[in-house]
Every structure is written in C-alpha cells, then in structure tokens.
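sorry for the late reply, my laptop died twice this morning and i had to redo everyting from scratch. anyway the thing you sent over, i finally got around to it. pasting the sequence first so we're on the same page, its 112 residues, then the predicted structure underneath. double check i copied it right bc i was rushing
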Amino acid sequence: MPIQRHQFDLGIDTDLEDSMTRIEAFLVEHPTEAYSLAELAGEFEAADLPFEEQLELGRRGMFNAWDTRRQRFNATLAKLAELGVVRFKDVAGVKYFAHGETTLQKILEQGR
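ok and here's the structure:
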C-alpha cells in the first residue's frame, strides 16, 4: 500500500503517523507534566525498551523494519524527539518526556 509523500519525506508510515499524533495529543493535554517511558508505555499499552537503542536505529531510518508493538512505540517517540515535537531528559537515571518546541502540524505544513 502506498504512503503519502509527506510520510515518505519524514520516513514514517500511516501507523507511525497515527501513533505520533496520539502521543503528541496526550502530551499537549498535560503541558505541566513530563512522563517516564514506562508511564507513557502504560498509557499506550506498549512495553518498555531501551530508548537510546531505538533512537539510534530510528536515526538510521530503520522504522519500518520493526515489527513489534513496543518497538513501534519507541520508534514513534524517537521520531517525535528527532523532529522536536517531544523533548526528553534523563532525571535521576529515568528518561522523562514532555511536549517539545514545535508541533507535528507545523512540521507537516512545512513539508507541503
């Protein structure tokens, strides 16, 4: 099945874009809070995997090679972080995530 041109340009597919939209919406709804990877995974029923490994694989454009739900969840966070939609920080050995400096909508509009 073909993907949209903006998806091609961003290196994502329809499922990943949908997940990105859902995670961003959740973080926008909670602007004064940051969530650990485990907390976000719990919100979206995904299991915890080492984020650094997923981020590195994501930067190499390997999103579509992942076939498990938790890997796609981490791929979603990695892509959102890469785009600046989500920020993350290590706090006392735990990665926390919050909404970033831009929005997915702005990124999609720039690509059109």
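The beta strands are 35-36, 86-91, 94-99.
thats about all i looked at so far, will dig more tmrw
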